[in-house]
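quick one before i forget lol
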Amino acid sequence: MKRIFAILSIILVSAFVAKADERPIELKQMPKNAQQFVAQHFASVPVMYATVDREPLDTDYELRLEDGTKIDFDGSGRWTSVSNKRAGVSPKLLPDTITSYVTKNYPQAHYIKIERESKSYEVKLSNGIELEFSLSGKLIGFED
């Protein structure tokens, strides 16, 4: 019983320590790529807060804007996710082939989340539809 308690204590402490690497920063402390992305696409929206999460093998950044937008960046400042359930997300972040497909097939929906992965884009729409596209814009997955 003592052994189980000791193991659980170690796990809890480890989880706390791992999360303790997340700390607040200013936008100017983020990588230049991230700063340029924000200046290009969200220049008129004030920053609420920014954080850096340093893990042993990975660093991620998160930015929250006053309009409700959340932007995640990888360690080099490349955006990986942009979301805003209230105001939506600009389709300008996507290749034209993707925005054309969405406009044609879901004209009433707006984008609430866009994720960019190494080989694909994932798009979540306001109507609950989730679409996955190749980097070239070809539809490769669908979930409703």
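fyi The longest strand covers residues 47-54.
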